[in-house]
Amino acid sequence: MGTRARRRPHLLPLLLLLLCGECPPAGGCNEKRMLALLPHCGKTFAEKMKKVEVWKWCNLSEFIVYYESFTNCTEVETNMVGCYWPNPLAESFIAGVHRRFFRNCSVHGQHWQDPPDGILILLIAVPTLLTLAMTGVVVWHSKRADRLV
C-alpha cells in the first residue's frame, strides 16, 4: 500500500497533461517568441507554393492542402507560446503572406447584377404557373376520384 501511495502523485501531472493536450505555459502569451516562430510557417508555405504554377495561385483547389498546413502551423506555433489564435499579431503575419502570394487574386472584376427584366419575369412566372397547374390537377383528380367510388 505504501508503494501505491508514492506513485499516485506522479500520475496526477501526467493525467492533467493528457486531459488538456498542449497546455499553454503558465506565463501567458509570449508575443516575441510567437513572432520568431511564425516565419517558419511562412517559409514552409512558400516552399510548398513553389510546386504550384504562379498562374494557378488564385485557384484555391490547387493549393488548399498547403494552405491548410500553413494555417495549422500558425495555430500550433501560436498556442505553443501561450497565445490564443487567431490574435492581431498572427493575423497581421497571415495577411502579409496573403499580400505576397494572393495580391493579384481579386474579385473586383466581377460585378453581379440582376438578369434583364424579360428573363427575370420568366424565371418567376414559369415555376409559379407550374405550381398552380399541378395544384389544379391534384384538386381535379381528387374530385373525380370521389365520383368514381
Automatic annotation (TrEMBL):
Signal found in the keyword field: yes
Major localization class: membrane
Protein localization: Cell membrane
Domain of life: Eukaryota
InterPro entries registered for this protein in UniProt: RAMP, RAMP_sf
Protein name per the record: Receptor activity-modifying protein 3
Membrane topology: Single-pass type I membrane protein
Keywords associated with the record: Cell membrane, Disulfide bond, Glycoprotein, Membrane, Receptor, Signal, Transmembrane, Transmembrane helix, Transport
GO molecular function: adrenomedullin receptor activity; amylin receptor activity; coreceptor activity
GO cellular component terms, A-Z: adrenomedullin receptor complex; amylin receptor complex 3; cell surface; lysosome
Organism expressing this protein natively: Physeter macrocephalus (Sperm whale)
Transmembrane segments: 119-140
Signal peptide annotation: 1-28
Gene behind this protein: RAMP3
One BP term from GO: cellular response to hormone stimulus
Keyword GTP-binding: no
Pfam families: RAMP
Family: Belongs to the RAMP family.
PANTHER family noted in UniProt: RECEPTOR ACTIVITY MODIFYING PROTEIN RAMP (PTHR14076), RECEPTOR ACTIVITY-MODIFYING PROTEIN 3 (PTHR14076:SF2)
